[in-house]
Specification:
With 751 residues, the chain is of the alpha/beta class. The chain is built from 28 helices and 28 strands.
């Protein structure tokens, strides 16, 4: 935020009003009461208020709530503050929105986590900047700490309240809303309209909103200004529901084909009888609760965007299921909407074939995960407390308004964002859904993501600044390529190296045969039916010509997986020698591309059960400095028992490669073709974050991976409560909390 104040404006008056310290909570528009005699949807929507005793009929619940309807915003606020000074609580409301206001100390005593705090209000006619300076002085805040400033003109009272309400909602959901036009450039149709509101590490969000309106008098026009300073609270808006009336999911189970077909027919009948969107939420919630109690062999997941679409999905599944169950048929069936069934579950406890796969550098993309925080606010809150989330995801580049900035990130920044995206998705699956893998492996630098994400390294965040500054990533194998210059015995008088890499559709053997003719070209990666060659751009192009193949230039400078990288082998070991946690996962087999030959062949790094920091660092270095044979890595994982490969990272590039490897194995009758293989991407570039996640969960459920559906069930409980609140006439139709950006205005505390 660019705000400048002149010296006179920055100078606070000698006598400054005390900060207000008023706790604020965004609520449904229903009128609150301390005299609640029976079960109420608000008990689901506002659990903290009930737990505090504020909205219960318990003895001693004597807090008084003053209800004020907004008609004159400034006068209403004055009355609210006066009531709060008298020890009362105030609900300030319009027909569609409301705020609960109380002293911050009272909120703390009641163990209520406010969404925000009103720290200052100042009014005057000396100018907007001067009025805001007075407000900042009252709030005891410096202009440099203000994250967002809104300057709004000539609004009526309802519009002013809506603007403040919106700002508190953004604070409470940690959401940064983008303007449609930014410095004269219109936001593109494919760009995210909002994303997580990042701040520097351990710095709270502080906002200022300035209202001004003109008043005409006899002498001249006069402008009256009001400035509000609102700071982030300790609470946040409860998660948006992952499933709802536009994103349906049902899970049906059984031990036989007949049981599954019966369940499908029964669901179809039930939906035909209860086709409206309100009742389907209850049917869906009850279905998921019932499924969690089952332990059957098979599970069918059904996904659709409406009841009518769901009926079509059910019909398609009924038709496809017998062929899938046949011994000589395909073992799975998947629809574009995400419905899924497999007759060969690969992730159950008995099979123990679940593998987490971590992609390498270069998979991150502009605006990735822009919606995830709305659905998993407690996860983001925890990650923000544990480390520098903004740096971990390289937010300034990933969420830059110019999408090309993310594409042009230097190698070190790409590596950080890649590990960060993998770390976030791993925590999401493991902490929110209680999913634990049997195996873990990584593509290239994905090995570092693996160790960082799965709770082995004690302080993975320490690698962020190191990656940005260490010569290993800035100049040795990228940038000036000092390691390559050393390997090629070049001095400072030699010209700069023109380096590139190319993806070519070819087996590795013909390329290996030609390499002696081109000593500065290298076979960097083997991946299914394609390979990556890297090195001197001229020699790489000459090799491709002799190979009679066309290569696709990556136009990225990195000497990883080439012979010159060996110059940095000891430095890589030193870089990745990180202290380990006192307790780390013992039941996960960590597989490395460095363990594909010799006495380490087909053995996990922790095969003996004991690992140390040097062992891990050497494994990463060996992978880093040699040709990556991803095909052999997947085959090795399969021989060790991995069957269901879940990709934890941005996009789905590894899933595509593994699918191609499996297809190639089947076509040539390779030994690996006898091993079951299925991929599950958790994210996909160009797709909706939550839809991609829900499709992944659907596959995992059908593969009988042990997991918790509690996030889906809890979200549906809130959706149902909101509908009940509306149907009971307790809130205006516009008070239903859904849509952008006022989504799920429910109280939730930091954990």
């Amino acid at each position: 935020m660019n705000q400048t104040l002149n010296a006179q404006q920055q100078q606070a008056p000698q006598k400054v009003a005390m900060p207000l310290r008023i706790a604020l909570l965004v609520l449904p528009s229903t009128r609150l009461s301390c005299d609640v005699q029976s079960a109420n949807p608000l008990e689901v929507l506002l659990p903290e208020l009930y737990q505090s005793g504020l909205l219960s009929s318990k003895e001693g619940a004597s807090e008084q709530i003053v209800n004020i309807e907004v008609d004159d915003f400034e006068a209403n606020l004055k009355a609210s503050i006066q009531a709060i000074d008298e020890g009362k609580l105030v609900q300030l409301s319009t027909p569609s929105q409301s705020l609960l206001m109380m002293p911050a100390l009272k909120a703390a005593q009641l163990r209520i986590h406010p969404h925000a705090q009103l720290a200052a209000i100042q009014q005057g006619d000396a100018g907007v900047q001067q009025t805001m300076a007075l407000a900042l002085a009252q709030a005891k805040r410096d202009i440099a700490t203000v994250s967002k400033v809104e300057n709004l003109h000539d609004l009526d009272s309802l519009q002013k309240f809506a603007a403040v309400h919106q700002l508190i909602t953004e604070l409470a959901s940690r959401t940064s809303i983008r303007n449609e036009v930014n410095q004269g450039v219109t936001l593109g149709p494919k760009q995210a309209k909002s994303h997580y509101w990042f701040t520097p590490n351990h710095q709270a969000r502080v906002t200022a909103v300035n209202f001004s309106h003109s008043v005409n008098n006899i002498s001249a026009g006069k402008q009256i200004n009001a400035s509000f300073i609102i700071t982030q609270g300790t609470g946040f808006i409860a998660p948006k529901s992952i499933v709802d009336s536009q994103r349906l999911q049902f899970v049906l189970s059984g031990d036989t084909q007949a049981e599954l077909l019966t369940a499908l027919s029964s669901l179809k009948t039930e939906l035909l009888a209860e086709p409206n969107s309100d009742s389907v939420l209850t049917v869906m919630r009850d279905n998921l609760i019932a499924f969690e109690q089952t332990n059957t062999r098979y599970a069918v997941t059904l996904q659709a965007s409406s009841v009518d679409a769901m009926l079509l999905e059910i019909s398609a599944m009924i038709e496809a299921l017998p062929a899938v169950m046949a011994e000589d048929g395909q073992h799975s069936y998947k629809t574009p909407a995400g419905s899924y069934f497999t007759s060969e579950p690969l992730g159950n406890v008995a099979t123990a074939g679940l593998a987490f796969v971590y992609p390498g550098v270069g998979t991150v993309y502009a605006d990735m995960f822009s919606e995830l925080h709305r659905y998993f606010p407690s996860l983001y809150s925890r990650l923000e407390r544990e480390g520098d989330l903004k740096s971990m995801l390289q937010a300034d580049a990933i969420y830059h308004l110019d999408a090309k900035v993310a594409q042009a990130m230097p190698l070190g920044d790409l590596a950080i964002a890649g590990v960060g995206s993998s770390y976030l998705l791993t925590q999401l699956l493991m902490q929110e859904f209680n999913i634990t893998p049997n195996f873990a492996l990584g593509y290239s630098m994905g090995e570092a993501s693996m160790w960082a994400s799965l709770g082995v390294w004690e302080n993975p965040h320490d690698l962020i600044s190191k990656t940005q500054t260490d010569p290993l990533f800035t100049t040795a194998i990228s940038g000036q390529l000092s390691a390559v210059r050393q390997a090629w015995k070049l001095d400072h008088t030699d010209s700069e190296i023109v380096w590139n890499s190319f993806v070519v559709r070819s087996p590795s053997e013909p390329i290996k045969t030609l390499l002696p003719e081109f000593p500065r070209a290298y076979l960097a990666i083997i991946q299914g039916d394609t390979c990556v060659i890297a090195g001197c751009e001229t020699q790489c192009r000459e090799l491709l010509t002799k190979l009679k193949k066309r290569g696709i230039a990556a136009n990225r400078v990195t000497a990883m997986h080439t012979t010159p990288a060996m110059e940095e082998h000891s430095n890589v070991i030193e870089f990745y020698t990180q202290p380990l946690r006192d307790e780390y996962p013992q039941d996960i087999k960590f597989i490395s591309a460095a363990s594909l030959s010799g006495d380490r062949r087909d053995k996990a790094v922790n095969e003996a059960g004991v690992i140390d920091s040097t062992m891990i660092a050497k494994s990463i270095a060996d992978t880093f400095c040699h040709t990556l044979d991803f095909t052999s890595l997947i085959h090795s994982a399969q021989r060790q028992g991995a069957k269901l490969f879940v990709e934890l990272g941005a996009d789905r590039q590894n899933s595509t490669l593994i699918d191609k490897i499996a297809k190639l194995d089947r076509s040539c009758g390779a030994e690996a073709s006898s091993y079951p293989c299925c991929t599950v991407p958790v994210n996909a570039k160009g797709g909706d974050d939550i839809t991609s996640l829900l499709k992944a969960l659907g596959q995992l459920i059908s593969h009988r991976v042990p997991l918790s559906l509690r996030p889906l069930i809890d979200g549906l409980n809130r959706e149902i409560a909101l509908r009940e609140l509306n149907s009971a006439g307790l809130t205006n139709q516009n008070g239903i909390i859904s849509g952008e950006p006022d989504a799920n205005k429910l109280l939730k505390g930091e954990v």
